[in-house]
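Internal tracking record. Fields below are filled automatically when a chain is submitted to the structure queue. Please do not edit lines marked as system-generated. If the sequence contains nonstandard residues, flag them in the REMARKS field before resubmitting.
Queue: standard
Priority: normal
Entity type: single polypeptide chain
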Amino acid sequence: MNGWIGVDLDATLARYEKWEGVEHIGEPIPRMVERIVEWLEQGVQVKIVTARVYCGESGEPAGDRFRDSQMARTVIEKWCLKHIGVILPVTCCKDFGMITLWDDRCVQVKPNTGEPIHGG
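SYSTEM-GENERATED OUTPUT FOLLOWS
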């Protein structure tokens, strides 16, 4: 499979109740971790898509204005290594290589219509 699967961090991959700061990430959600491990075993690239990091237009962290971004990336990478066994790429950007996005806040729409697939 070409492309990559995006997975949101907070409330999708890790438990989330309220913002507790950039250094806090909740406990892993077992079924989502299992799903990611299965994808990785199948050779699918998986990336964490989160607003905790900021990507400038070039996809690189945006400097001093977003100084917490690099700290967040480091914390997320350590969390991944501990709970998934590998460091996943971390981004806030979608691109044309993304196959699908798993997220607790998405509403899927029918392409080119603006119509939600499951009500709305």
